[in-house]
Amino acid sequence: xxxxxxxxxxxxxxxxxxxxxxxxxxxxxxxxxxxxxxxxxxxxxxxxxxxxxxxxxxxxxxxxxxxxxxxxxxxxxxxxxxxxxxxxxxxxxxxxxxxxxxxxxxxxxxxxxxxxxxxxxxxxxxxxxxxxxxxxxxxxxxxxxxxxxxxxxxxxxxxxxxxxxxxxxxxxxxxxxxxxx
Amino acid sequence: xxxxxxxxxxxxxxxxxxxxxxxxxxxxxxxxxxxxxxxxxxxxxxxxxxxxxxxxxxxxxxxxxxxxxxxxxxxxxxxxxxxxxxxxxxxxxxxxxxxxxxxxxxxxxxxxxxxxxxxxxxxxx
Lengths: 181, 125
Known about the structure:
The complex is a heterodimer of chains A (181) and B (125). Chain A contains 7 helices and no strands. Chain A is mainly alpha-helical and 181 residues long. Chain A has 2 domains: 1-81, Orthogonal Bundle (Rna Polymerase Sigma Factor, Chain: A); 106-181, Orthogonal Bundle (Arc Repressor Mutant, subunit A), CATH 1.10.10. By secondary structure, chain B is mainly alpha-helical. Chain B has helices at residues 3-18, 23-39, 65-89, 91-104, 115-124; strands at residues 44-46, 50-53, 58-60. Chain B has a 3-stranded antiparallel sheet, with no helix packed on it. The mean pLDDT of chain B is 77.
């Protein structure tokens, strides 16, 4: 269980950040999801853990939005999604200079890479939730269509549709900024 | 470029981004994992029938195990039914009842005799 959680925690954190656009909330969400998995699904076979974890993660993200909506209903007239307190958080604003990635070596190339990363992350954040979820599970978590469908609680056909639309939307969004992968 | 290649290129850059997560965020994730592992209990299987897991050691049964849980109950019901049937079929139980009625009742002993048998016996002689 610990090995599995260690392998998935960073990506889970980033996926939560893409969804809620707030690093503190994302950390809380990942912690809740890990806790639920460890408490309630310890008897499940190791092979089912990734799918279960991502299902829990998505449900926790949904719960976060529900709570936020209830809170904002009581505290302001603004909509739940408009009241996110992320004004001061710029994603990946801190640059770690001791980067060990083999993508690029020179500072200029790394800066370029960081800019590309930021643009891609913004494009992913801009995707509709289901498309983003399908794209992340299929390509980042490397789930197959069936596993993705189980994790998302929808049909395989819906997964294919969401993925295809996500790719089109991302490609379009990147192309609009002059980026072709 | 097909969807798969596009996805691979995007996730390659996203993976690079994982190396740029702040150290304090990584520390928070480690703490979160440690908390989760505190709540984790290695599942225990009892007699192959029940799997006990979770912090409160809840018993969980899978689809194969669930019917097996009822086997001991079924065996108990069958045993009770058989014991009851044996008791009813026991001829000694009838004699005991007859003896008790004979000793405690006010009726003469002839009242308990099989008169039809007597008459049949006399008739056959």
